[in-house]
Fold these 3 entries.
Entry 1:
Amino acid sequence: MDELNNRIQHIELVEQLVDFVVDIDFEKLPDQAIQSAKIFLMDTIAVGIAGTTYDATDKALSAAQSWSETGSIRVVGRPKVKLSRTSAAFVNGVQTHALEWDGLHEPSVVIALCAPVSALMAEIDSQQVSGKDLIVALIVAVEVAVFFGGNSTSSPRFFRPSAAGVMGATMAMARLRNFDREQTKNALGLAYSQVSGTMQAHWEGSMALPMQIGVAARTAHMSVDMVAAGMTGPVDIIGGRFGYFQLFESGGDIQGMLDNLGKPMKITEMAHKPYPAGRATQATLTMIRRIQSEHSMRIDDIEHIHLYMPQLVLLLVGRPPTPEMTPSYARLCLRFVAPLMLIDGDIDPRRYSAEAFADDAIADLGNRISLHHDGNPDNNALGPQRMEIVLRDGTVLKADCDQPLGSPGNPLSKAQRENKVRYCFSLGLPDADPEQLIAICQEIQDLDDCSVLLDCAAGK
């Protein structure tokens, strides 16, 4: 026993995280956190509906149906489809991240809700969950995901929305299952034992990128199910010899992050993506819209565009456009996304198509864009960014951006948030009523049974 105890050196770190998860109380939550949870629940469900338009999600659904031929759990954006609980969580997850439209925790750049919401939507169709309990689960999910994904001093190697997201999703599920401390600790260890998702799928723009979110959502269910069946997991999973911050991330101030759980509630620092493209493109898109609103400029007037950005932006979206690229690749290709915004004045997710990839006008404009490292030493910074558009007459139009549209410092208005929901429905569930989802989310704390979310989000 002494030898076993010697191998568990940092149990106090896990205990502190578990205490936060178990002890958080709806009645003591600040109103801003409750409102943010409602806003981003609505947004995340909506982008999952729109995600059904990406053909990779149909393939994921086909695979999931082969795993569970019968089931009773509804799937977001899929009328008449019912799967097992774990398979529904998987498909929800693939769809939610399919279009790169899901929100993120701005300071840490962790896409913190796509895996948790995908898991929770399957759970609320299998047991009665109140609105207050769902809000608490969402807040727990973001705190835990940001702790694991936002405490790194190095550039990402593993895909944080899935690697950190599964930890947040599992703790959210533990709350909904009313787990005690020991059960919650074991759920955390079992989730850690299944952490997956690498940056290679992001690098290549593979269909596996949103698939990794589906796996994370499914794993959250599997983890709590194993605990319910009596299985135990490893304990020292934060600072242990083979813990998260030894294998998956280079840890910064782990104790400081734990001490600041809920200070402030991280869900209040979430950001929307107004455009269906990688977060690292959003500053450029914001600057383009600003310049277009302030100056009369034709595409033919543009000689060259210079973009100055931190190293992480170059890593994430600095890839070259090609006619053969996939939609997942294109959504992360700044030299495709920026010309699309300049030409169309918006980003329509249906434009991630072979026709657009072969469009000479888009390709020509992309060739007139140069990306430059701005010298920022922070390996995890996405801003600030700068833009210079050089016109053929010698005029130089300049813009800078530290707070992209949708960020906490430059938030979407209520009308913009709700219009995004309506647009998502028009893409994925045109016969359904988005106003129902908007209304339910606004008053969700008063619900005794959140399965009504799927009455409008799954379709008829």
Entry 2:
Amino acid sequence: FKVKNFKLEKKLILAIFAIGMSPFSMQIAASIVQVISNNALRSYGGDLAIGAMTIISSITMIILMPIFGLNQGVQPIIGYNYGAKKYDRVKEAIKYPQIAALIIATIGFLMVELIPGVLVKSFNSDPHLLSITKYGMRIFLSMIIFVGPQIIRTNYFSCIGKAKKSMFLSLLRQVILLIPCIIILPLIPLPNGETLGLTGVWLAGPTSDFISVIITNFIFKHEIKKLDNPNSEDGEVMGEAI
């Protein structure tokens, strides 16, 4: 064992950085979104609205944490079988986590819609905060059922080494779509002369979720089809390092 025998391979290092850029970008993006979101919430709903979003974000994480766990568990399975060109196993490995994620997200959705008060009271029992949080949470998380499988599908691209697509899809829902929605939707005028205001901020969540789910599904299905024809020109399935 000698240190001098260890050499860094540029291609391998770049591949590692490329795959890690997706979660890294999400962490940076989350901070940016939080700043923009807090400014919008303060403008349209004051400190109570910020407190409500904090609770909603915590409940969202509780719902999604098991799905993130599924991602971590399935990643080496997909990566190994993809590298071994066992594409039937890859399709099996991506199928069942999606079903599990859908079940988890559905349970979370039902809890949010049916017993929001119970969830919110676990964090704060102030009646004013409770009221605004229940209303906002039911709107903001109304598309969470479809977000569960989307998270698994986004992670698939990271598993097979397609870092660019993984990063794009990761940023799509939380940044590329969400930020414009937070800024634009509250300004939409209503028939009574007012604007959507705080309701527009809550609507930013399901709006960005809906659009990103459609885009993710389109890209994912196109990628999965390549596994059926791995040797064709259009069916080239080798991952891209960067």
Entry 3:
Amino acid sequence: MSDLTKLADTVFRGDFGSAGQITKELIDSGVEPLTIINQGLIAGMDIVAPKFKAGEMFVPEVMMAARAMAVGMEV
């Protein structure tokens, strides 16, 4: 699993504790910030949206995913 895929999965799971750490590691390894945003953070939320629409995820889980994305954006 690539680090960007790992970040997307972290956002999807709402693991905001790891989202910032993985984002920082990606930045430190030279990955462009826009790539991190598009292929990591937004990609994770792209998994959340259809699951929420299908009733497979609920508001608290969506909020946790959004918080994980926000933590990644703060880095």
